[in-house]
């Protein structure tokens, strides 16, 4: 992200606590989960970040110095300038919830479903928030740090698919 874009964001949100960090040429903006759509809309419509590259999450349970349990991470790019930016919001238990970005980028649909399926982060206003990778009977969220490495014995309920010989 260029300095001009950063100044534009700082000017627009000067009364808010916008935190910028940079690592290896990638700029990250830390923002409030309650107002994420406001920032994402501004980045798309006013700053030219027209491509949603990815949405992912991280669980910082038992991470030294972590103040929040989850980080929800949006990776955006500008197809016109090749600029990239990462937007990070913090969420906590018992109910990690954030507004859906599907109204801004239709591609957020499956990305948000994957984050929901793996971490249990809900996206308010999502048109079809249901599991995308795991069966509906699966009740846990396997990428949370409190999920056991060997699972909880739920694999015995999974259907076994075999190839029929002809």
Structural class by secondary-structure content:
alpha/beta
* CATH-scheme architecture: 2-Layer Sandwich
Helix content: 10-25%
Mean pLDDT across the residues is: 91
Low-confidence stretches: none
Quaternary structure state of the chains depicted: single chain
* CATH fourth-tier homologous superfamily: NADH:ubiquinone oxidoreductase Nqo5 subunit
Total count of domains:
1
The fold-level CATH name is: Beta Polymerase, domain 2
Pattern of helices and strands: HEEHEEEEHE
Roughly how many Å is the radius of gyration? 18 Å
Strand order of the biggest β-sheet: 1-2-5-4-3
- The end-to-end span amounts to 56 Å
**Given the C-alpha coordinates, what overall shape results?**
globular
Strand content: 25-35%
Count of strand segments? 7
For the record, the CATH class is Alpha Beta
Count helical runs: 3
Major beta-sheet overview = 5 strands, mixed
Task: Describe this structure as you would to a colleague.
The protein is of the alpha/beta class and about 170 residues long. It has one domain (about 5-155): Beta Polymerase, domain 2 (2-Layer Sandwich), CATH 3.30.460. About 20% of the residues lie in helices and about 25% in strands. The chain has helices at about 5-10, 35-45, 110-120; strands at about 20-25, 25-30, 50-60, 70-75, 85-90, 95-100, 120-125. The strands form 2 sheets. Strands 1-2-5-4-3 form a 5-stranded mixed sheet. It has a two-stranded parallel ribbon with strand order 6-7. The longest helix has 12 residues, at about 110-120. The radius of gyration is 18 Å and the shape is globular. The N and C termini lie far apart (about 55 Å). The mean pLDDT is about 90.
């Amino acid at each position: 992200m260029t300095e001009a874009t950063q100044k534009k964001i700082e000017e627009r949100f000067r009364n808010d606590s916008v935190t910028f960090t940079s690592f290896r040429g990638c700029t990250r903006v830390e923002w409030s989960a309650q107002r994420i759509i406001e920032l994402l809309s501004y980045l798309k419509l006013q700053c030219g970040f027209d491509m949603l590259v990815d949405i992912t999450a991280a669980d910082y349970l038992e991470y030294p110095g972590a103040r929040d349990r989850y980080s929800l991470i949006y990776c955006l790019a500008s197809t016109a300038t090749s600029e990239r930016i990462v937007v990070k919001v913090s969420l906590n238990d018992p109910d990690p919830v954030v507004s859906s970005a599907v109204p801004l980028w239709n591609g957020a649909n499956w990305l948000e479903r994957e984050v929901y399926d793996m971490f249990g982060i809900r996206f308010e206003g999502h048109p079809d928030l249901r599991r995308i990778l795991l069966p509906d009977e699966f009740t846990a969220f396997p990428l949370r740090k409190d999920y056991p490495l060997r699972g909880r014995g739920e694999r015995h309920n999974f259907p076994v698919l075999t190839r029929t010989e002809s």
